[in-house]
Fold this protein.
Amino acid sequence: MRVLLVGLMASGKSTLGQAISAASGWPVLDNDVLLERSTGCSAVVLLEQQGLAALRAAESHVLTLTLTTPGPLVAGVAAGVVLDVRDRERLRLGGHVVYLRTPVGTLARRVEALARRVSTVDHRPFLDDDQVVVLQAMSDERDPLYLEVASQVLDMAVLSPQQAVDAVLAALTD
């Protein structure tokens, strides 16, 4: 069993992954950590030095690592993986895919709060322009793709992290 968390940046994949791991005892795989281990640099550095195609290829490789790791496990998946039709199919078949559907306004607030707390190494270059406009465009493009692969959709506008964990664990026992 694999719980694969998908959604836009700042949707709560890392937070929920840790919480599901704590509740279930399953290990959690973090996309950013796996990407850095496999490429030797962060996603930001990879994007700046090698470009978007290299980043997407690395994210696809991390998805392969995640899908070939024996379960049970919980994993956050790179937000852009759904843009590739082959990766969507692999996701759909790879486990219980949970889409953390989060309003753009909430995402923008979280990204802004994160930007105030973290170093420039962790900055999100996709959001260098108007964050709300960029996040809305990403949401418009990716929402149907996340819905296509999702086994479960969580409305993160109304669920607390604990309610989300309970909903995922309940879905796994049905």
